Amino acid sequence: MPCDRRSSVPGDLSRRGWELTEAGDADAALACHREATGLPGAGGRTWFHRARSEQRFGHDAAARSSFGRSLTASLPPAEAKEAHFQLGKLQRDAGLLAEAEASYRAVLAIDPLLAGAHILLGVVLRELGRLEESVEAYGEGLRLNPSVAAAHYNRGQALLSLRRPAEAADGFRAALRADSAFSLAQEALGGALLDLGDADGAAEALSAALRQRPEEARLHHSLGKAHYLRGRRQEAAAAHAAAFALDPSFAYAHNDLGNVLSDLPGREAEAHHHYAEAVRLAPQLAEAHSNLGTALKGLGRHAEAAASYSAAIRLKPHLCEAHKNLGAALTELGRPRDAVASFATALDINPQFWPALYDLLDGQQFLCDWRGREARLRELERHLDEWHSRGRLGAGPTERLHAGLAPFHTLVWPVSDKTRRRVALSRAR
Predict the structure, then answer these.
(1) To the nearest 5 percent, what fractions of the chain are helix, strand and coil?
(2) 77-92, pLDDT tens digit by residue?
(3) Is 405:353 a contact under the CB 8 Å cutoff?
(4) Are the C-beta atoms of 198 and 190 separated by less than 8 Å?
(5) What is the C-alpha to C-alpha distance for residues 315 and 293, in angstroms, rounded to an integer?
(6) Model pTM?
């Protein structure tokens, strides 16, 4: 169906070009539109229809140019709104995010109640890293149209990036109310609940996602983390094993399986194997080097442990626990001064990392090095007073936090009798 070149009226040629577009004849349609826009008197609508045809046939760069030409001419509001909207989509696809933002804002200047423009503005703002504005734009779009599951999901992801997991979880739940089969939202809900410490809720959400995507290693790994937090070590081990069975290169699954096995009696050698695998697969993963060091230390291989901790620190200099554990390995290697320096570095990074403080005080006692000792002891007593006043000393998390604090410490440290009694009673409980 050729373009009818007998007409010299831009509107007639433009209409013919759109008929050819609808018929799928790309060459004839685009030729017709080019001829129409080349005629004297070609206005905004002629360029608009050319742009839609170019967009339909995948000529995105040409379509961006033609939409721009249409908007410099006069267009009725409805077509101007559509031109800005489509131009925004093309600009975003081309990575022109600032231009896409301007286009969507132009749409909303014409029609402030267009939910889709608010939502796509939220997408662009998130990609620009302007997360607070993105959350606001998504929220306005969802106020106008709460049924868009993907918008709830994307808003939730922006909230996660802002470290607002409770609000993110609400967003993922809203996505699931809009689309109960949205497995990515189930997975994201599980991750948010893990951040919130709701291991049971996380396990439920991740199990639901796995029923739809049983071959996805990442989901098995996340479920393993949820089971670990629930104290269900065997199920956690099985989930991590399923993860790397599906993806043998999944270093994080090996690392976290090592964590699980470290807690199980008699599984130390297996833990060491999986930490070593994690390091082999992801040599840039500082936590895996640190965990391998702990496994080696448990096996009495202190020189290798120190090397692993040092590797972790090179990769992540602020990995506080690696500095503390390096100090412990150096103590075993008969290098107390180097050990004290490592404990002190750990405390420089996190002044409330109490296990490093206990080791530092012990190391200073051995070296008769009293520098800063008085202030550190007073800080420890202040902290213990605070925890005792809350009734938390000797309770679950605190017990783990102060697992390295034993009554014999308080007998050799110059602390108050009150502190000695509290530590002794905590250990007795």
Answers:
(1) 75, 0, 25
(2) 999 999 999 999 999 9
(3) no
(4) no
(5) 14
(6) 0.79
